[in-house]
Design goal:
Length: 197
């Protein structure tokens, strides 16, 4: 098998090489991200066998999606794999009835779950998972939308403060926030992502 020797190719380059028939490129991708994905799964299920199963299932889905030509994440390979992995973890919990579904309300206030202080230890762990999943989703947004979202949600800044700090009008800041939420909602719906509480 032909070896890839390009120094340190990006994920996007490796995906392209794999799609062009270089099987080794996928092995390189898996090796590069294996520990992070494995640790993420284990931190949710606390069982090595289940972790191994979910890890294998995730990469079977990755391979199937790539081979069907359905991958269009444009360099966001790791967040994409993490979304697949997250969904498989949720499927596992749903099958074992260990985790109820968190329903989004019409106003799409997914962030409300992050502000509940009256949680037990398990609730705080799940809150941490949701927050980490949200951060992965936010990373897929255009940069100006990410900025407004971080300032508003994580730094609790007013739109006036955001406007002053970013040098855009309040209306532009409001518009970016609105589009960020629309894009997040679309990503969640398109990928069948379930946020849990």
């Amino acid at each position: 098998m032909e070896r890839i020797d390009l120094g340190n190719p990006s994920d996007a380059v490796l995906v392209r090489l794999y799609l062009n028939g270089q099987e080794q490129a996928l092995s390189t991708l898996i090796e590069r991200h294996k520990q992070r994905i494995y640790n993420f799964i284990y931190s949710k299920v606390y069982d090595r066998d289940i972790t191994e199963d979910i890890f294998q299932d995730a990469f079977i889905k990755v391979i199937q999606t790539l081979k069907r030509g359905k991958y269009n994440e444009q360099g966001k390979f790791l967040p994409w794999v993490m979304r697949i992995t997250h969904n498989l973890i949720i499927d596992h919990f749903r099958k074992t009835n260990r985790m109820p579904k968190f329903e989004n309300r019409d106003d799409f206030n997914i962030f409300s779950v992050l502000t509940d202080d009256s949680m037990n230890v398990e609730g705080r762990m799940i809150k941490g998972q949701i927050e980490s999943d949200l951060r992965l989703l936010i990373d897929t947004l255009p940069e100006e939308q990410q900025t407004v979202l971080h300032m508003r949600i994580y730094r609790d800044m007013s739109f006036k403060e955001i406007s002053e700090q970013t040098g855009v009008s309040i209306n532009t800041a409001l518009g970016r926030m609105r589009y960020a939420l629309i894009n997040l909602r679309r990503t969640i719906e398109e990928n069948n992502i379930i946020l849990t509480k």
